[in-house]
Amino acid sequence: MNYTSLITTFSCLIVVLALIGAFMNKVIATIVIPLILSTPAVAEQGEWVEWIADAQFLYASIDNLNLSAFSDDTHSDEQLALSGIVGRFYQLNGFTRMSFILELDVEEYQNFDSMDNTQLGANFGVRHKFGLGFYQPYLQFNANYRHKEIEWDANSTDILFSSLELGQHINNQLSLAASFDFTSTKGKAGPVIVPELSSDVFDQSYIHLTFFVDYIISQDWLLSASYARRQGDFQSSCSKGNVAKVLEVEKVIAITKDDIFGGCVYKLDGGSNIYSASLSYSLTSHSGINFIMEHYQGKADVLDYHNTSYLLSFNYRY
To answer: Distance between CA atoms of 193 and 197, rounded to whole angstroms?
Structure first.
């Protein structure tokens, strides 16, 4: 993995954040960016305005990266990622605030460099608190657009995401939340390899229902866990030798050639359970480290699709 190239690429992309609208749909480019860069006169319509700027460096070890259902097809890899966001908060009143955020992510893989990608996005959020005080519940809405440009160009996608989250502090240490989100992706159609099936593998839609719990162990330590139920489209890869079995036992929606892992990549409709746990340590008032473990258990009609990821990240907030 060329770490120097990764850092150089990320630094160069930071410079062009102001031009991110060229990569996004017209609505986000003409509405979100002007709001972020608006004059103080616009900001004065709210009670106050605050800038936000975060950066993250992440290392991940991913088992069964291709989410194969066959043990002889699984591929593992390591990933390095740099991400950054910049935006503004608009406090509309004592209970409600809006946020407009630009996002940039760069990911590189150790072995499968065809999966290296750059993601540019924009997020709009509204958060409402039901009263004054630390223990009052909140409702958060987010709408996000993101373009993911992958080295294997056929896998590049446009991603639309929206979510609704309800949460509350139970006491000084414990907080709970639940969210419902919908994701839609639009990609390029690959070559047709099974005449009676579509090759639009990367056009997908799915939902998540997620439950979160955070527990403050001490002033510097935070323990978090989540469970998510995912329902809808997902993709998996397999070698040419396993394609016939997949077509025999699964209701494949779309299939095409896979230039990353070899063989084929196909789309299914199914459900999955996603378990996640993390331990965070605050280094300073602006930075911290996080260790995260995530396990994915998916199933379509017959076959099972599992993978596990271990992540270590450093976060900095301005």
So the answer is: 8
